[in-house]
Amino acid sequence: MGLFGDWARMYKANQKHLEQQGRPSSYLGQLADIPDRMKEAADNTDLGLRMSRHLQLTNGEGLPAVATVGGSWQVGTYAGTSPVVRIQARVERADGMEPYVVTCDHVVAAMHLGRMQPGATLGVMVDPLNPHDFAIDWIRTGQLGPPPPGSTPGPGAPGARREI
Can you tell me the distance from the alpha carbon of 5 to that of 16, in angstroms, rounded to the nearest whole number? Predict the structure, then answer.
């Protein structure tokens, strides 16, 4: 087909791809879309840096605490297939500091979304450099008490453990 035929085919495939994503496919439309794409890239970079910091906190750099969920909602962003959830919680640190309320964003796997109900207790690790940020320690959270109703599969449901 030749160089120009291949270029035309790739151009049409790219237009189709952009249209399927609901993005502009014309040259001028793509130019106008650049600020939105840059904001999306910056948001994803910020999210990645926060996830990296949360990993450091749960691996020993954080201060242990317990957070009681006051409210939670999805913000509309995803990290892979896991939604970003904004959590408002009351934090009680183990070092005896006065409890305080904080709101921060976390990537929460679908299997843990049931634990984001108001009143739920989460084991967290607070950032000593920024006490208004914490990482959820899912292992400690599981040890704090029974999971809320609906967060674990019932007998016979996919993912349920067989009774022995």
Answer: 17
What is the distance between the alpha carbons of residues 141 and 136, in angstroms, rounded to a whole number?
Answer: 8
Going residue by residue through the chain, which has 164 residues, state the pLDDT in tens, using 9 for 90 and above: 687 888 889 988 988 888 888 888 888 888 888 888 787 777 777 777 778 887 888 888 889 999 999 999 988 778 878 888 999 999 999 888 899 999 988 888 888 888 888 998 999 999 888 888 898 988 888 777 665 555 555 566 555 566 66
Report the alpha-carbon distance of residue 58 to residue 66 in Å, rounded: 13
Query: Hey, is 139 helix, strand or coil?
Result: helix
Burial 43-68 (b: 16+ CB within 10 A, else e): eeeebeebeebbeebbeeebbebbbe
Q: Where are the beta strands (DSSP E) in 6-150?
A: 63-79, 82-93, 100-107, 121-126, 134-136
pTM of the full predicted structure? 0.64
- What domains are defined for the chain? 62-144 (2.40.50)
